[in-house]
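Data card: per-record layout.
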Amino acid sequence: MSFNFPGNSPHGHVAFDGVIEIGENGFWRHRSPPTLSLHRAAAMFNAMNGETIIEIGSGLQGEMSGNSILVWAAKTQARKIVAIDLEEHHINDVRAATRQFPNVEALVCDGIAYLRDFPGTIDLLYLDFWTPDPAGAQAGSGRTNAYLQAYQNARDKLSRNAMILIDDTDHIHPWKHTLIVPEACKDGFREIWQGRQTLLARHGTGR
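The structure for this 207-residue chain is written out next.
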């Protein structure tokens, strides 16, 4: 995985080279784990003195998934980390693995509804949840619309320096990033990097 760092890219963002190859069955052929992206996002979160991370779509699913909740718990200075998933066994895994981190809360619930009702401020929103496509709909459209809704529900809770990290964006459209990225950019976010994951960020004068 290679980078163009700001100043080398004409767009001023970090570019992950290439979109992964898609097989005849429509699934990925070869990919890299998101480790570098997760660790870089964690470092940026610390640099901005972030306090709250919300992860929608959680669990421990191995190196290729990145086990992001462990990165947030071990590598950031977050005061509050909320891991959300609809599958109880995923949340049970998270609870077992993060017992030593009192700042981690793991919940079985609808993440989109949680964002709508969340009363606080979000510094890092991590999106990696699965939504099925409606019957007869174009493949990927379920995730496209759900990720946009997640952003819309979180929009007013995102801090002035907030970051949004989206997993699995090395996929053909329509997909998780298709609508959320342009919508967030209208609101002042910009792409910091793209590829295996996409990071959106905006820079204000504090939380």
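Known properties of this structure: The CA atoms of residues 180 and 186 lie 10 Å apart. Confidence is low (pLDDT under 50) at residues 1-20.

See the next section for split statistics.
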